[in-house]
Amino acid sequence: YLAKTFSQANEYIKPNWILFLGDIFDEGLSASDDEFKRYFERFDTIFQYENREQQCIVIPGDNDVGGEYYGDKQPILRQRFRNYFGRMIALYHQNDIEYLKLDIDMFESYVDGKRFAIMEQTQNRPLTSIFRIVLNHWPLLTRSTRFIKPFLNELEPNLILKGDSHHFTVVSYDRINVTTHLLAKEYIPQSILSIDLKQNRFVYEITIPTCSYRM
User: Fold this and answer.
1) Vertex 80, ends 38 and 72: CA angle to 5°?
2) 131, part of any domain
3) In terms of domain of life, where is this protein from (predicted)?
4) Is the four-CA dihedral 51, 54, 59, 64 of positive or negative sign?
5) Domain-located, residue 212
6) Cα–Cα–Cα angle for 161, 98, 43, nearest 5°?
7) ∠ CA 90-93-99 to the nearest 5 degrees?
8) In a domain, 213, yes or no
């Protein structure tokens, strides 16, 4: 089902980029190296990843490397994921659009944790585009002000796309009033939800829900 549906959607849309927002494997957190390899081979069979690798961005989720619960993060699992899918933090360009791939789990700080790693990975390809999309498995705009303010001021995303949940949501963050608002959850309250991504006051985070048990 997944292979056929993905193939038809990909052929119809012909996307420039294909984004996988984490939780790629059922039990990547507990899988042995051989099991993980078989998971990857199944993933490749469904999505033809190795044939499309240059147009795919794959970020890790808690079912792949941990990070949902305090103490379950294991560097060796992140390294294994990196061996198959590349750097955990990376910058991609498509015309005037930038995709910033991140790996900030539920317990990591931006200022004290990921800031240096992000700057280190992007120093050779500086953040210069007209429009920037940040990709992260876990939510970013519902965290503390201490996290959100420097994150937004330094990385200046126009839009954030996240995975993790099985429910569609749209969250907005008001940079002037320093408040977060839930605009939609599971369904859009009106037939069309219009958001202005050109303005600077509000930043939006959209949860892309899974199409199966795992994303």
Assistant:
1) 105
2) yes
3) Eukaryota
4) positive
5) no
6) 55
7) 55
8) no
Q: Counting beta carbons within 10 angstroms of the beta carbon of residue 186, is it exposed (0 to 12), middle (13 to 18) or buried (19 or more)?
A: exposed
The residue segments making up the domain with residue 154 are 2-207
C-alpha pair distances (Å), 192 with each of 90, 174, 184, 212: 33, 21, 11, 25
- 19 DSSP β-pair partners: 57
CATH of the domain at 161: 3.60.21
pTM score: 0.90
**How buried is 209 (Cβ within 10 angstroms: 0-12 exposed, 13-18 middle, 19+ buried)?**
middle
Domain count for the chain: 1
8-state DSSP, 136: E
